[in-house]
Amino acid sequence: MFLLELVMQGVRGFRNLTRLRFQNGFNFIAAGNEAGKTTSVDTVLRLLFPNGQPGLTDPLVSRSARDSSRGALVVCANDGAYYRVIQDFAKRAVNLSKYNAATKEFVLMHKDWDSAAGFMAGLAAGMSEDDYAKVFILHREHYANRCADSAPAVPRPLSSKHAPSGGRAAANEAKLAELREALRRADDAANVEYKLESAKIRLGELAKKLADLEDIDARYADIEANLAALKGCEGLPADVIERLEDHEQRQNQKMAKVDELQRDIEGLNMQIADIPSTSLLTEKLFILGALLGMVSFVAGVFILKQEQADYFPAGVLAAVALIAAGWYKGSRKNAQKKVLQKEVENLVAEIAEMEKSFEDGGKAIIACMKATGSATAAELKDKTENYRYFQSLRGDIVEQRQRLLGGVSVEDLGAEYHKLQQEIIELEREAGAVAQYAVDTYSIRQEIERIESESDSPAPVFGIGGKSAPPDLATPAAAAEPRTFGPELSIAARAGGIEIETIVPAVQAAAQRNFSALTSGRYVRVDVGIDDEPAVYDKADTRVSYSGLSHGTRGQLYFCLRAGLVEAVAGKIRFPFLLDDPFAGFDQTRQRAACQILRALGSRTQVILFSSNPTLRAEGDAAAELA
User: Fold this and answer.
1) Residue pair 330/279 in contact by the 8 Å Cβ criterion
2) If we measure between CA atoms, which residue out of 605, 604, 611, 603 comes closest to residue 620?
3) How far apart are CA 437 and CA 177, in angstroms?
4) Are strands 577-580 and 607-611 parallel, antiparallel or unpaired?
5) pTM for this structure?
6) Which has the closest alpha carbon to 416: 624, 209, 216, 206?
7) Which of 135, 149, 233, 463 has its CA 20 to 30 A from that of 116?
8) pLDDT confidence of 186, banded at 50, 70, 90?
9) How far apart are the first and last CA of the chain?
């Protein structure tokens, strides 16, 4: 499971609507002092574990906007489904919805506390709210509580010689006042630095946004120029591509049929060419019959005698027969040629009819070609596709521009940019004025704690001359039992279904790797201490117990143990790991190293870090800001 969005309105200091979006990985949320880091984490926990008891919801209600105090959380479950839980903290109402991808809306599932709580408990693998907070939420106060619980018990003898003298106490108070003032100034300087860094980050974002807008406008102008060149495509029918494809298909069919008819015509023309053109006067049989007739006539008149008169009609008949045969032969060849020529004419007419029918069917395409100045259907298709492509690009550009503007105008962004420039100039001047107070607050806090521990008020002095009080009236020692890391291990093992024997080595390996990085290799081994307090080993294999470490090193070790615990169970259960400004007591170098540890952890599960140090943000981080 991981978080997608947190929405708050009227929740403690969030009077107006505040929205935070997250990604499934490492998320960096920059927020100054009193900006709402703890409120955001507490709201997430309350929404993950719905409970309508007044004692749980009332602390989140804003005093200035009680009637509109509500929060919403969108989560992605392990099965990929999206759920949204909304709680009205003032009216103590709840509803749980599931996202429907088909309608793109959230559909209500539950609107009573028991059903909503039961369903969310299923998403949380049955973990209770307290168990979840002990494993997957890390507040800065956890360090202080852990260190206080693990501090060694030191009995204080009730002797007057241990009471600081009045002069020393006054000196300590003066020193404390001086240190607290230095701490206050350092915090003020840090706040100014935070505001300056935040303003610079915002200015950079605005500059990039304005540059992106200029690029988008240039691309938009280029697209408009291309669309203007294809203006003739504006009035084309919506199905012009389908018509073109149908036109091309019919054209291919027509060309195939015309090719077939042309081959037939060529064959007929070859047959016609093979039939020679004949005339009756050139036909051999006709000529032979005519000559025979003439000879017969001449012979019958001038040559044949009376007894030979029968040869005359026979010659004439033979001549007539030859002439008739010649005439028949010539007329037959001419008839064959005419038939073939008629077939050719029919085929030519069929081609012409086909061309006319194709032109009649393609009048709409021809009109489109004329409108777009296209010489061919292929050119018309290219122009149509280009026009639609540029139209799609223009729609995408418009959508990108609207999304980039986020409901404001370019003029408003420009005005905000110039305003931020002036604000940065003022903040740089203010930061320069307090730069002398920008010191490491970690050492100051340690010195304050040391003096305060030395200045604790002793018990009343009994007797005279420094005699101790009776043993039965001595101040009782602090609790001798140190707090172990066992409870956190047990919770994580139970939730992930992992044996303790399996999870302990995994946590130790991860904590050891991270702690070595934080301490620059000074400590090389970590013992989580199931039944005893955690311990570490240095390069000489010297064991140092948790209570034997300095205050700051104890905090670093506890951070590594918690991060290692989340890493160890990430293969079984993946829940968002929320951290509420946990590095405020670390120096700058260790803050960056710890942040890098969380980035690596973000590759295995969702990590959401709320930090008052905006300089920890790195390029590529999914980042947001709480103002």
Assistant:
1) yes
2) 603
3) 15
4) parallel
5) 0.54
6) 206
7) 135
8) confident
9) 28
